[in-house]
Amino acid sequence: MTQAQSDTRYVNVTGDTVTGDLTLAATGSDGRFFIFGRDGLPQWMFGNSGGNLIAGRYDDTGEWVDNPWGMNRADGSMVVDKPLWLGDPTPYEDNHAASKQYVDTTRVAKAGDTMTGDLKINVARHHGVEFREPGGERRVLGIRTTTSGVAGLGAFKAEDDPTQPLMLQPFGVGAPNQAEHAVNRDYLLTQYDTSTVTPASGWAANSITWMTRNGWAVVTFDSVRKTTAPAANDIMFTLPVGARPISGTWWLSMVGNVATTGGGARVYLGSVESNGQVKIRGLVMPPANEILYATIAFPCV
């Protein structure tokens, strides 16, 4: 065979180009590999092992270390046994792989993390958030949404002891300024002074007028008088917001001061309205300057 014939038929060991397919044939479970090396020692192998495609690596002494990459011929699954480095850390298509950097900066860690935006929960099926003890066996508190679309919390459940009340901690110690705000005990046990219960025009309050709110109940003791003879349905004073009846009209009795009438004590009829107005009612009315004493107890909003 001449050199020209050899150059046409065979690959040059110093480097050449193959113009057709190069087939590495194996029998049974035998493998066939391309070996990439340096200074006479293998560094990488790539080829067919038992029908599967693998890539293996060697250490600096030429000893095999492991196969960090492989593909199963039967189902096409791919195994990456080592970290996969992505040139672009941000995926921009639905089927792109995501890097650890992308996940760490855009996802919330299960072990604990901080969200910088809102967490929205679908309210169509009473979804919610549960707080559990370590180990996750027992729920301590569950917060569930409502299906009506109303803002707020649909239900609480203190499962560690259902007989105990669930306590809400309001912000600060001041009075709430919105109807749906939580209130603290100091607010519920508010002591109102006479300047808070302001008499209506023509009426005057004595110094012993006071009011106490305990939870959802209000008790007030008031002593007022009018310089002129009052008329039926006169407004004596108006209760402050936060100390008014839940609804409807609440009837009360008032006692006239004996010293101002010159006779025995007399009883007069009065009422408390849901708007806080306290009125004198009835056919019998007190004279001018008679001090009226009224003790009122009712549930409030």
Secondary structure blueprint with pairings:
Blueprint: H1 3-9, E1 32-38, E2 41-49, E3 52-58, E4 64-71, E5 78-80, H2 100-106, E6 128-132, E7 139-144, H3 185-188, E8 191-192, E9 198-199, E10 203-205, E11 210-214, E12 217-226, E13 235-238, E14 249-256, H4 258-261, E15 267-273, E16 277-281, E17 292-299
Antiparallel strand pairs: 1-2, 2-3, 3-4, 4-5, 6-7, 8-11, 9-13, 10-12, 11-12, 12-17, 13-16, 14-15, 14-17, 15-16
Concise account of the structure shown:
With 301 residues, the chain is mainly beta. The protein folds into 3 domains: 31-110, no CATH class; 118-166, no CATH class; 191-299, Immunoglobulin-like, CATH 2.60.40.2460. The chain is built from 4 helices and 17 strands.
State the separation between the terminal residues, measured CA to CA. 111 Å
Structural class: mainly beta
Number of helices: 4
Estimate the mean pLDDT confidence.
77
**Helix percentage:** under 10%
Number of strands: 17
The CATH topology of the largest domain is given as: Immunoglobulin-like
Assign the CATH class of the largest domain. Mainly Beta
